[in-house]
Amino acid sequence: MKLTQGLQRLLKVAVVLVLAPGCSPEPVLDEPPAKPQALQFQYHYQRLVDDFIDGQGRVIDGADARLITTSEGQSYAMLFALLANDPATFRQLLQWTENNLAAGDLTQQLPAWLWGKQESGDWGVIDTNSASDADIVMAYALLQAGELWHEPRYLALGERMLWQIARYEIAKWQHRHYLLPGYFGFIEPLTNADEEASIKLNLSYYALPMLDYFANRTGDELWQQVYDSGLYLASLHEAGFASDWAILKETGELAENQQAEADYDAIRVYLWWAIAAKHDPLVERQLETFSGVVTSINELGSMPKSTNWRDGSYAGVGPIGFSSAVLPMLEQIAPQLAELERQRIVATDPSKYRQNYYDTMLLLYGVGSDQGCLVFAADGALKPQWEREECVYVGD
Predict the structure, then answer these.
(1) Which segments of the chain are extended strands (E)?
(2) Secondary structure class of 376 (helix, strand, coil)
(3) Helix 208-218 vs helix 221-235: angle between axes, to the nearest 10 degrees?
(4) pTM for this structure?
(5) Whole-angstrom Cα distance, residue 256 to residue 249?
(6) Distance between CA atoms of residues 266 and 249, nearest Å
(7) Which one, 4, 44, 65, 306, has the greatest CB density within 10 A?
(8) Is residue 195 a part of any domain in this protein?
(9) Per-residue pLDDT tens digits for 260-278
(10) How far apart, in whole angstroms, are the C-alpha atoms of residue 187 and residue 202?
(11) Which domain range does residue 129 map to?
(12) Helix or strand run (H / E) with residue 382
């Protein structure tokens, strides 16, 4: 386009005014306003470090009188330390976990899931069983930390954990391979002619992006089979909500007796399925399976506290962490409701959740994903956002 002489003169004057000493013109474009701190991953990670992780690397759930630590909490904190590019905290968390939950050697033993003040008054392991949801996240965090921080020991330890998970926490039931919730206690064998064998499963333990990463990294079809069994299990949910626990008969069908009420486990299903849906059309279609999330939030204004995955009923308003955990799903299928939940998070007095361990973890997951700090590639690998200040740990 050819400029007229008059317009050229005007532009020259404007340039002189902008460049002239002492002139302070207003910027043409304003920077976008910063997100409220309640919607910032960095803010919640700082809270995690300050309020929940002690000087030895133990994540403490103070809501329990036993001041418990779980393998879940340790694994989540390790993942978030990696996201925040905080290798010192990651190292502490790993060391405490190995020394106290795995008898000093994670290469030989999966972590015990529960540690705290025992009935005798001593401190130590309360329940020796493993928890596969924690083991999946911990193995993933180790493998990714090894890659991103160039730590061979983390890589090797992650591989050893994968081997142990495959050996002790995956079971073939009929023609599918399922992720057992732990090492023992979840398969009921046939004991007499009047009873059926059964398997008890937890859909929230299926961290789909991580299972996908294991399948792609190892080339072992076992991990794809576990991933697929999660999709099959989700397909059995027909009332709009996810379960905490589901029991399958030997035929692979749902058993008659089920724990219909769901809450603190089921909430993670919506998170994992929404994240995986970004790269898997099959999972994307399965989001419709959980239509009760949209229906209930439309009515209540927030995610309900208790849902019934058998009849679709729901009751109460869930804690603030629930509002965070459903953000990735709502952003895909009902963006207006995602904004409604963000408003609730920002409007809530932080003192109401500051000391709540599980709310803090769900806020880190949901806000981290919603803010773009928790990002998975198509192959399940992490895409760290360390160049973004709001995604990294800045310390005290």
Answers:
(1) 69-70, 114-117, 123-127, 170-173, 176-179, 187-188, 198-201, 246-249, 261-262, 304-308, 314-317
(2) strand
(3) 160
(4) 0.91
(5) 9
(6) 21
(7) 44
(8) no
(9) 999 999 999 999 999 999 9
(10) 13
(11) 53-168
(12) none
Residue 5's pLDDT band, with cuts at 50, 70 and 90, is: very low
Helix (H, G, I), strand (E, B) or coil at 126: strand
Q: Which residues are catalytic?
A: 133
Q: Is the pLDDT of residue 49 over 50?
A: yes
What distance in Å separates the CA atoms of residue 274 and residue 303, rounded to the nearest whole number? 15
Q: Which two tokens stand for residue 9?
A: 């003169």
* Distance separating alpha carbons of residues 14 and 236, to the nearest angstrom: 67
CB-based burial, 250-281: b 16+ in 10 Å, e otherwise: eebebbeeeebbbbbbbbbbbbbbbbbbebbe
Residues in contact with 134: Cβ distance below 8 Å, sequence separation at least 6, in sequence order: 70, 71, 72, 74, 75, 76, 111, 113
Q: Residue 111 is part of a domain; what is its CATH number?
A: 1.50.10.10
Within a domain: 245: no
Angle at 73 between CA 68 and CA 79, to 5 degrees: 160
Is residue 141 in some structural domain? yes
Over residues 331-366, the pLDDT tens digits come to 999 999 999 999 999 999 999 999 999 999 999 999
CA distances from 141 to 96, 270, 376 (A): 15, 21, 13
Rounded CA separation 74/343 (Å): 30
Per the document, the length of the chain is: 396
User: Structural domain tally of the chain?
Assistant: 1
What's the average model confidence in pLDDT over 64-74?
98
Average pLDDT over residues 146-158: 98
Higher pLDDT, 13 or 114: 114
Does some domain include residue 102?
A: yes
How far is residue 228's CA from residue 217's CA, in Å, rounded to a whole number? 17
In contact, 227 and 208? CB cutoff 8 Å: yes
